[in-house]
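Annex B. Sample input.
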Amino acid sequence: MGDISVIIKKILTKYAMYYNRKYKRSGALIGSRYKSKAVEMDEYFIPLIIYIHQNPVRAGIVEQAEDYAYSSYYEYSGRKKIVDTELVQSLIDTGDWVKLHKKGVDGHFSVSDRVKLTETEIRQRIMKYTGGAEPSEIGLWDKSKRNAMFGRLKQAGLSIREIERATGVSKGIIAKC
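Annex B, continued. Sample output.
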């Protein structure tokens, strides 16, 4: 597949051309381009998905998130298989997923507080906790020692994705520690 920004741009351009042709008009139809922002901190990931699923409820379109026909809600609760939900399911089980959706999140959601660390900064932080061992060596450690280190690194504020990039160990393994 391609970059989501390119895909959205193509869809919006085609729609604008169709609309302008149909209503015999010209010019821009959509005011601003599609925007996206990477979620760098794992603690924001689950609340962000819940926030997105709650939007139709807050807008008064449906009573409950699962009632919205155009949502990926059911993908994450294990019913369909179109959306890749592996990461979410490695972070939270289905029962907790449903409970959190019932509870919802408040309407004020921001993911911009976190400063993205460089690869060098991530490496240095990990080496501080490993006593100088390279991050790539952690995957070779025995399982209990490795998992304990992943737990310490997460408690130290490194995200699962940052640890994964530095060590080469899958996010599923790191998330379980």
